[in-house]
Amino acid sequence: MSLIDQLREEFQQALTSAGTVAEVRALRDQFLSRKQGRVTQLLKAVGTAPAEERRALGSQANALKQEIEVALDAREAGLAADAPPPGAVDVTLPGRFPAAGRRHPLTLVRERIEDIFLGMGYQVIDGPELEDDWHNFEALNMPAEHPARDMQDTLYLATPVGTTGTTGSTGATGTPRPATLLRTHTSGMQIRYMEAHKPPVRIIAPGRVYRRDNFDATHTPMFTQVEGLVVDEGISLGDLKGTLNSFAERFFDREIRTRFRPSFFPYTEPSAELDVECQGCNGAGCALCKQTGWIEVLGCGMVHPAVFEAVGYDADRYTGFAFGVGIERLALRLYGIDDIRMFYENDTRFLSQVPL
User: How many C-beta atoms surround the C-beta of residue 166 within 10 A?
Assistant: First the structure.
């Protein structure tokens, strides 16, 4: 009898602390399961008691079993009635702040570049990503079969059946404009702007560009670029160097050494590459700059007279300079990142680390 009283007391204590339906069901298994239930084990033990005690023990054990069943049913029904319906909001839960959205690092870098040049008096222009051969190549001193076209593996759109393969329009020299392509740079906007405006010109053209590149740590078939153009009387190479030096210092927000290296671009002459002092080692040499102390950031040069001829500008009267830079390349340098794919994987863990 003392064992029955002890089991009853243990059950009542356990039932008092059961606060969920799942906990009540666990108690049911603990006390009433057919094989291992504690009351079940008690009923089996009645058969081993002395014959004169079996009747009383059996009656008390069955009464305890019924008492536990009634108590469990009542407690489970009460908890189920108090539970919120499926899908209901539990207003007692602590609040959770929604994840804050972040502006993409490439957007931040693009706006940083635009703000710098707007402060210098430049105009920001935009144009079509579907371009024609005239604006993308020929007017930029890259006629058909020009070897420089191999540097920009182009994505052409298929020419519709029954067409001649041209858009029907011509450039300033009467050159036919073939079927459209995905622009390989935003330099075509320089041509479009000069076709519609007379000097002076001071513009930048940011936007997406496309090339046949593998998607790896340093290449992507779609990337963003900013092209710049200045045209007026008396524009010199010194104006180009001063502009880009000022841009580099304002972009990296510190005094920074720069250097210009001779290079080649068909639409500028002379042409140059701009390098900036490696931020990882301050010019001492490291793995990031391949021990050179310098990081290449953009190409530039004086506008080729053939480009002025294509848009009807007087090359004897006007001079100008142009430059082009990949926004991803600057973002890699600004944020100290070594894999361009991180900008396109939409990993919120990465995006949340980029300073606003």
Answer: 16
Q: How many CA atoms lie less than 13 Å away from 284 in the CB half-sphere?
A: 4
Residues of the chain with pLDDT under 50: 160-177
CB neighbours of 165 closer than 8 A, spacing ≥ 6? 159, 178, 179
Q: For residue 228, which of 199, 205, 260 has the smallest C-alpha distance? A: 205
d(CA 280, CA 285): 8
Please state, as a whole number, how many other Cβ atoms lie within 10 Å of the Cβ of residue 111.
13
d(CA 66, CA 43): 12
Q: Are 107 and 114 in contact (CB under 8 A)?
A: no
DSSP 102-115: ---HHHHHHHHHHH
Q: What is the pLDDT of residues 99-114, one digit of tens each?
A: 777 789 999 999 999 9
C-beta of residue 328 within 8 angstroms of C-beta of residue 339 = no
Cis check: omega of the bond before 200, within 30 degrees of 0: yes
